[in-house]
Structure formats: structure tokens, C-alpha cells
Amino acid sequence: MTFRHPGRVRRLVQTAGFARADNRTRANLELWQRSLAAGDRESFARIALLAGFIPGARYIELPGGHMVMGEQPQRWHAAVLDFVSASPTRC
């Protein structure tokens, strides 16, 4: 929906991974993995934000595994509410 009809999307919170990776996604994932392996979280955040070309995007990390919304529900919910409330409303 976001890529096909960006004008229809006001807010997006991606909490899970990708269903299917194309070549661009695989290249970005490799850059992300190298940044994280080197302990360069600042570069990782920049790559993650720029890879999506999403204005106003944010990157945050919460401790947890594959189901962070279930493992850290209060922290995840607070982060989502913070993002949604701080995002400008598009008309």
C-alpha cells in the first residue's frame, strides 16, 4: 500500500521484517549487517532511514526478539504513540 499509493498513507509503523527481499533490499540488509557487526549504530540508522526514502522516518531499537510488541508491549506502544503524535498530519 505504501509503495503503490503513498498519498493514501498517513502513518506507518513497521515492526516486523520483510516478507520477500528484492535485490535492493538484500543490498541494504548487507549494509545494515556490516554496520551493526562493526558496532556503527549511527551509520546503521542513517542507512535504515535513507533506504526507505521516507520523510520523517525514525529508527529506534527496543530490546527483544522477533515479537518485540509482545515482549516489550509498554515500551513498543509508547514508541508508536510518540511517533504518531509527533508526525505532522497530511491533508
Report what the structure shows.
This protein has 91 residues and is mainly alpha-helical. The chain has one domain. Helix content is 49%, strand content 0%. The chain has four helices and no strands. Helix 1 packs antiparallel against helix 2. The longest helix is centred in the first third of the chain and has 15 residues. The protein is globular and about 30 Å long. The two termini are 18 Å apart.
List the helices and strands and how they pair.
Blueprint: H1 23-37, H2 41-52, H3 68-71, H4 73-86
Strand content: under 5%
Give helix % range: 40-55%
Distance between the termini: 18 Å
Report the C-alpha radius of gyration, rounded: 14 Å
| Inertia-based shape | globular
